């Protein structure tokens, strides 16, 4: 690797480096950092992501793909949006929460029927939560099992719904 770092190209997908030692673009997250973050923040086992590759397109927009490709890739979409990095606090996407949130053992908040209905409509809640502040996996019990609804932001006694406008539902 040269002394000068490459720059990010927002018009293509670049596979994330496995570790910081392999990083060629300043500020780019690594596979190791992402897997560690999901383990520390949500208790998702690292082996969950075996067989997946991680990609960045744009500044901090991370995508996940089952399998792998040669890098870089010049296409519009690849796999599933997964995580937003390059900001103060990393934010999982609704897609990622719904796909992997059922495996989370930490920072998961369960809502009752009325709260879950409000959450998927995009409404915020005042509620007590004894866990960490920040981004949470929001879940609801359905048919005896916990199902992730999406991502919420918990601050100062309020759970903010981060369900994207196009995915909100009136249940």
Automatic annotation (TrEMBL):
Keyword Repeat part of the UniProt annotation: no
GO BP annotations listed: methylation
Superkingdom of source: Archaea
Key words of the record: Methyltransferase, Transferase
Domain DUF7122: 1-79
InterPro entries: DUF7122, Nol1_Nop2_Fmu_2
Domain (rRNA small subunit methyltransferase F RNA-binding PUA-like): residue spans on this chain: 116-169
Pfam families: DUF7122, Methyltranf_PUA
GO molecular function: methyltransferase activity
Protein name: RNA-binding PUA-like domain of methyltransferase RsmF
Species: Haladaptatus litoreus
